[in-house]
């Protein structure tokens, strides 16, 4: 199991504290104390949670180049047509994924393309499943252009989240399934795509970042079998 690099300091601190607590509990137990094992157990449970939260599993790479994979792991809570003026330039489709604290919080590139838009906006920290979260909450946006059109990935902080990390910079090329960022402790990912792309998911579906197919690009479908794996085989992100 791999872990997101942002999680290593938290994991290290947790292991040190829980280890010290167990050593102290042994000393306290010898002197008749009983709180030591309880505190050590709580710290150990919290450390295991932190380790679980920052997990970053690899998945098999998709072979069909027309497939658009989920940028985040969680539950699909919205599939709707909206206006997105900042990068998409008008009407487009939005797919919203809510990530609870038990989901993997590493985001992946849904398509292969070039980053030509990167923006950050501070905001509130309302619960991420509310509609207003897309408008009011702290968020970071990453616009990627492809041969078939533009897509926009928006990382949105939630009630507990207080840190959004976005890896690519403007001008970078990202491959489908590359790691592109992380949101700590409960969040949401809004994904915007052209109206002519075929959406293959529905509200209530569970999505896995870099694995679940959310949509298909139109003009790539016929070429999918011929181009399977070209330029992407063996790549698992940066």
Shape: elongated
Give the total of domains. Answer: 2
Instruction: Tell me the strand order in the biggest sheet.
Output: 9-5-6-7-11-3-2-13
- Main sheet characteristics: 8 strands, antiparallel
Q: Report the CATH topology name of the largest domain.
A: Glucose Permease (Domain IIA)
- Count of beta strands: 14
Q: In percent, how much strand structure appears in the residues? A: 25-35%
Task: Explain this structure.
The protein has 238 residues and is α+β, with helices and mostly antiparallel strands. Helix content is 19%, strand content 33%. The strands form 3 sheets. It has an 8-stranded antiparallel beta sheet, with no helix packed on it. Strands 1-14-12 form a 3-stranded antiparallel beta sheet, with no helix packed on it. It is elongated, with a radius of gyration of 20 Å. Residues 222-238 have low confidence and may be disordered.
Topology:
Elements: H1 8-30, H2 35-53, E1 67-69, E2 74-84, E3 90-99, E4 106-108, E5 113-121, H3 133-136, E6 139-146, E7 149-157, E8 164-166, E9 173-174, E10 179-183, E11 187-193, E12 198-199, E13 206-207, E14 213-216
Helix pairs in contact: 1-2
